[in-house]
Amino acid sequence: IGQRIEITKIGNSDEAVAYSSRVEDIQENEVFLALPADSRRCPIIPETNQPISGKIIDSTCIYIFTGQYKHLAKINVPVWVLNINDTVIKAQNREFVRIPLRTALRVITFDENGGINAPLKTESFDMSGNGISFFYNTKLLPNSKIIIETELIPSVGRIYTFARIKRSILKDSNQYLVGAKFIDLSRQIQNKLIKYLFTKQREFINKG
């Protein structure tokens, strides 16, 4: 109870969604999930017996489940009542799967006194739901903090967020490939980014 849930599909449409919820209660084969809402904070209420797909999110993996929406109820908060199918699949946490994505961005670093250095323009190498890799002309120290600002990303917008350096790998004589983790990206933007990256991943798969 309290486990984070993400609803990824409602009904038989191929359209991917990303609605956040959490487990409020479990009774026999019924699971009670906190009522999800869209980006406008409008409640999401499926039709009775509509198929539902989602994932239970752990720190390093996810558990993919399917089930049927039964009805809306209220315990401590409004909840979906779902019948969950018996088969639950363990898989890699796709929020952390890196998708190749070249996009222009600005990287802002800080000096030893906390002052802001001049932004450096570069481009990303890949991106995930919680981080980014990009090219940089000097080594950045692990755990140091930076600011990342991207150009407009379709269906996501411009990302402007703090990030923490995880690694800097020398790729040639004057260029590093730097990996950084987003540390204050809003859940709304993260959901849009994950959905966009899923779309890009499907495009790569379809192209073979």
Placed side by side, the strands forming the largest sheet appear as 1-2-3-6-5-4
| Rg measurement, Å | 20 Å
Query: Number of helix segments?
Result: 1
- Class derived from helix and strand content: mainly beta
| SSE pattern, N- to C-terminal | EEEEEEEEEEEEEEH
Assign a percent range to the helix content.
10-25%
Distance between the termini: 40 Å
Uncertain residue ranges:
none
- Choose one word for the global shape: elongated
Main sheet: strands, sense, barrel: 6 strands, antiparallel, barrel
Mean pLDDT, nearest integer?
87
The amount of beta strand, in percent, is over 45%
Q: How many strand elements? A: 14
What would a concise description of this structure say?
This protein is mainly beta. The chain has 1 helix and 14 strands, in the order ββββββββββββββα. The strands form 2 sheets. It has a 6-stranded antiparallel barrel. The chain has a 6-stranded antiparallel barrel with strand order 9-10-11-14-13-12.
Can you characterise this structure?
The chain has one helix at 187-207; strands spanning 4-10, 19-27, 30-34, 51-57, 61-74, 78-84, 89-92, 99-100, 104-108, 120-128, 131-136, 145-153, 157-172, 175-182. With 208 residues, it is mainly beta. The protein is built from one helix and 14 strands; from the N terminus they run ββββββββββββββα. A hairpin with a 3-residue loop joins β12 and β13 (157-172).
